[in-house]
């Protein structure tokens, strides 16, 4: 079953690209429903070329065009990214974070609104589509 909601990846490192590959391969998402943004242009360009997904010129553009926002940035960069996008996040967005060591409470405090959030901890076999992931949701993830 393919979802029609747009999923935007902020960050296109190894784990994000493994997830993108898996979502396309499984048929869960079509390429035209996946977006990506990354401050590292080479990484973003590679993801766009490899998977045929649309690359956004900024995190703000991605947030404005996505129903689901997947935060795939290094933990030390999370605060900066959240501060940048917090004014564009709406209550009907779903936030998914795969950043290690970043609790949902911190994300909610920075963003400043209650919204559905899920924390996912994928493991390294996900890089070859053989992984398992632990999930934890906030009270509004429903």
What is the CATH topology assignment? Rossmann fold
What order do the strands of the largest sheet run in, or round the barrel if closed?
A: 3-2-1-4-5-6-7
What portion of residues is helical?
25-40%
Tell how many strands the DSSP assignment holds. Answer: 7
List the total number of helices: 5
Describe this entry's structure for a reader.
- The mean pLDDT is about 90.
- A 7-stranded mixed β-sheet has the order 3-2-1-4-5-6-7, with helices on both faces.
- The chain is built from 5 helices and 7 strands; from the N terminus they run βαβαβαβαβαββ.
- It has helices at about 15-25, 40-50, 60-65, 75-85, 105-110; strands at about 5-10, 35, 55, 70, 95, 115-120, 135.
- The protein is an alpha/beta fold and about 140 residues long.
- About 35% of the residues lie in helices and about 20% in strands.
- The chain has one domain (about 5-135): 3-Layer(aba) Sandwich (Rossmann fold).
Helix-strand blueprint:
Elements lengths: L6 E4 L3 H13 L7 E4 L3 H11 L2 E2 L3 H7 L2 E4 L3 H11 L8 E4 L6 H8 L5 E6 L10 E5 L5
Parallel strand pairs: 1-2, 1-4, 2-3, 4-5, 5-6
Antiparallel strand pairs: 6-7
């Amino acid at each position: 079953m393919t979802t029609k909601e747009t999923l935007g990846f902020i960050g296109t490192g190894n784990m994000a690209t493994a997830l993108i590959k898996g979502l396309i391969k499984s048929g869960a998402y079509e390429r035209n429903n996946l977006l990506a943004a990354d401050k590292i242009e080479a990484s973003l360009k590679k993801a766009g070329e490899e998977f045929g997904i649309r690359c956004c010129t900024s995190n703000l553009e991605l947030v404005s065009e996505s129903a689901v926002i997947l935060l795939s940035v290094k933990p030390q960069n999370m605060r900066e990214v959240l501060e940048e996008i917090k004014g564009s996040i709406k209550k009907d967005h779903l936030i998914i974070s795969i950043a290690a060591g970043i609790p949902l409470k911190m994300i909610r405090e920075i963003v400043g609104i209650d919204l559905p959030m899920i924390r996912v901890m994928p493991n390294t076999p996900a890089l070859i589509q053989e992984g398992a992931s632990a999930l934890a949701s906030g009270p509004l993830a429903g």
